[in-house]
Amino acid sequence: MFEARLVQGALLKKVMEAIKELLNEASFDCAHSGILLQAMDNSHVSLVSLNLRREGFDKYRCDRNLVMGMNLSSMSKILKCASNDDIITMKAQDNADTVTFVFESPKQEKISDYEMKLTNLDQDHLGIPETEYSCVIKLPSAEFARICRDLSQFGESIVISCTKEGVKFSAAGDIGTANIKLAQTATVDKEEDAVMVDMQEPVTLTFACKYLNMFTKATPLSPQVCLSMSPDVPLVVEYKIEDIGHIRYYLAPRIGD
Amino acid sequence: KSKQASITSFFKKK
User: Fold this and answer.
1) Taking a C-beta distance cutoff of 8 angstroms, is the pair A169, A180 a contact?
2) What is the pLDDT of residues A22-36, one digit of tens each?
């Protein structure tokens, strides 16, 4: 028996918005410690890694490890039926071929349940090596989304360049060039407004706008985003999900000339 | 022109 009840059901709706453009389907690996999802996009350019810890749920029970393959467009249709203040429960029997979503309104006057067929997905899991990143940049997530959106008008790629002075995002194309420089903030009233750069060595890498823009669908999950870069390895874009976990996107760089 | 790398050239299948 698997059962996970999330009082802040809106978080699950936001998680769905954060992955559904990138992934058509994904396996939810449910275990005693919580729920994990790891999946590559269709083109195998990026990887999504979602972690929801059991402690973040109001009620969590997982008697046996369970892999639930879900069609994300179907799951998204179902989660759209939940109101933002609904409590969401996911449950499944051991070895079941369906999962049930239960939505409870805050005062319990409306309770809906939706049963969805599971699909068998033969998905490979990738080993993500432990990496000490040369540059770790924290910035407001809305600012990052804005930068990706603005620079996408200029070209298909964004160059991210991190030095001790700060971080520079650049794009170039037919209409011209664009550069956005963010300096590390000295003092801020709210921590979530800060730009922080932790740099061991300068790094410059080039990434496809298309994927960066899809990652920014996670913006409603967290006021801050963390970018980690090292020379010639994938970028990590991480959004914390309150006290429950995180979503990380890994994006392979564009390389060479 | 730069070329898009694949994520699987960095992370190997388990």
Assistant:
1) yes
2) 999 999 999 999 999
